[in-house]
Structure formats: structure tokens, C-alpha cells
Amino acid sequence: MHLPPIKRVLLKLSGEVLMGGQQFGIDPAFVAELAKEVKAAKDTGLEICLVIGGGNIFRGMAGAAQGMDRAQADYMGMLATVMNALAMQNALEQLGVDTRVQSAIQMDQVCEPVIRRRAERHLEKGRVVIFAAGVGSPYFTTDSGAALRAAEMKCDALLKGTSVDGVYDSDPKRNPDAKRFDTVTYDKVLADNLRVMDASAVALCRDNQIPILVFSIREKGNLARVLAGKGVQTIVQDN
Ligand code: UDP
Predict the structure, then answer these.
(1) Using one digit for the tens of pLDDT, what is the confidence trace for 38-85?
(2) Residue 13: in which H helix or E strand, if any?
(3) Hey, is 143 helix, strand or coil?
(4) 133 and which of 49, 97, 103, 126 could share a cystine (Cβ 3.0–4.6 Å)?
């Protein structure tokens, strides 16, 4: 398996990486570190779209498990992703990286709505575009939002930056013998229910032939290494 040339990427960060060492919420110092990683990748000439989850603040499923209406809880989760997007925008702009946030839930006072052509223009001008609020509908996740934006923005790859360094055949936090895949097909991920992203996101990437690179964003310099083909990662694509 080899990757096509990568010019434009969608970087998906789970909300939990914004917590840094905390148990909850946003650690501004760690967000600043993440922003440095994004800047380093951008400085290599890449066009970057970002999608950030909201799990560090609120997950709809967790609210539903405690008796909330699922859709209502999901809207709260989407609002959490907007807070994370604003935190990342702040950190990037403090490094001098021009950034625009586009939200799938309209919020005119704080960010733009999602407008594909406008996002295209931002990327052409060298701005990072952060897509917030997932797909804008309950019962979805930001993984699906990431796959959707990667497809519509014609990204060459979806990079999933998380706390683990790739895709394993079982949970590496529970099973010390878990084996990491260097490469794996979309169909195997779906058939074996491997924990990469949710199934709808993986299927959308498969149908649009967008490779998914799963890697740890917690290691300094790893994003740039992965983009240079030198990092530890798992690539999900067809043979
Ligand atoms: N969410 C949603 N629709 C979307 C994206 C997100 O309803 O299109 C809600 C959902 O409740 C989810 C929460 O926002 O639990 C936070 O997103 P996610 O769980 O994807 O964040 P991550 O796990 O990546 O931090």
C-alpha cells in the first residue's frame, strides 16, 4: 500500500486530546502545543482542515445514559465542539496562523457558517479552516463530520490524531499482547469492528477513497513525521 501525494489534509482531533493531563475540559497550554504541531505541518506547504471532537466536555451518549433526551444531549455535544474549535483558533492565531472557524450550527457572532466555497477560498489563502459542530445533526459524531468535510473539501487524506499510535486488533490499554496494524483495509475495519472511527465515517472514507491515517498526536513532532511517511501510524485504505 502506498499513499497518493498529500497536498490537502483533514486533521481530526478527539476532544480528549485537548484535556492534556487533565480529566476534563481544555488545557490551554496543551492546546498551544497542538497548535504548534498544526503550524509545523502547515509550514511544509500543506492545506489544513481541522475537525475537533467534543468528548472532553460533553458527549451526547453520556447524557442519554443519564436519562437525557438523546437529540438534546447531542446538540450540547455539538456546542462543545464549537468551544474546542474556538480554543484551537485562539492558539493558532497566537502563533500567527490565520484561521477561520465554520460551524454546522449557525452562530454568527462567533464564527462563520459552513460554506464550502468560502472554505475553499480560505485554504487557497493559506488559512486553516476549523469545521465545528460535526455534521450539524444529532445521532452523528465528529468522526462522521470529519469524513464528510474531508470528502467535500477533496482532502487527500484524513488524519486521525488520538491518544493511541494506530489501530490494534484489540484494545492495547487492556490487552498487552494487542497487535498494531501498519496497514488495514476499510472492509476489515468494518467487518472486525476495529476501533478507528465509527462505521459511517469509515464507510464514507471508503466510498470516496480517502485514506485514513491513525496516529498519536500526544507525541511531539509526530504529525510532521506521519506526514513525511516516517511516523508510527496505521493507514486504512484499500489494497
Ligand atoms: N455530535 C453530534 N453530531 C455531530 C457531531 C457531534 O450530535 O455531527 C455530538 C455527539 O453528542 C457527540 C458530541 O457531539 O458525542 C461530541 O463529539 P464526539 O463524540 O465526536 O467527540 P470526540 O469523541 O471526537 O471528542
Answers:
(1) 999 999 999 999 999 999 999 999 999 999 999 999 999 999 999 999
(2) strand 8-13
(3) helix
(4) 103
Coil, strand, or helix at residue 214?
A: strand
Q: Is residue 188 part of a domain?
A: no
> Which three cell numbers, joined as nine digits, stand for 44?
511544509
**The CATH number of the domain where 88 resides is what?**
3.40.1160.10
Rounded CA-CA distance 115/98 in Å is: 18
Q: Is the CB of 161 under 6 A from ligand 1?
A: no
Testing ligand 1's pocket by substitution, the residue of 12, 56, 78 carrying the most ligand atoms inside 8 A of its CB is 78
Check if 74 has its Cβ closer than 6 Å to any atom of ligand 1.
yes
Residue 1 pLDDT class (50, 70, 90 cuts): low
Instruction: Tell me whether residue 13 is annotated as binding.
Output: yes
- Indicate whether 75 belongs to any domain: yes
Would the CB of 26 count as within 6 Å of ligand 1?
no
Q: Which domain holds residue 214?
A: 8-165+196-233
User: What amino acid is encoded at 200 in this protein?
Assistant: S
Separation of alpha carbons 48 and 41, rounded Å: 8
Residue 182 belongs to a domain: no
Task: Tell me how far the alpha carbon of residue 5 lies from the centroid of ligand 1, in angstroms.
Answer: 30
User: C-alpha cell of 238?
Assistant: 484499500
Domains held by the chain: number = 1
Count of Cβ atoms closer than 10 Å to residue 72 Cβ: 12
Of all protein residues, the one whose alpha carbon is nearest to atom 6 of ligand 1 is 141
- Which of 84, 102, 140, 141 to mutate for ligand 1's pocket (most ligand atoms within 8 Å of CB)? 141
Q: d(Cα 235, Cα 158) in Å, to the nearest integer? A: 10
Global pTM?
Answer: 0.96
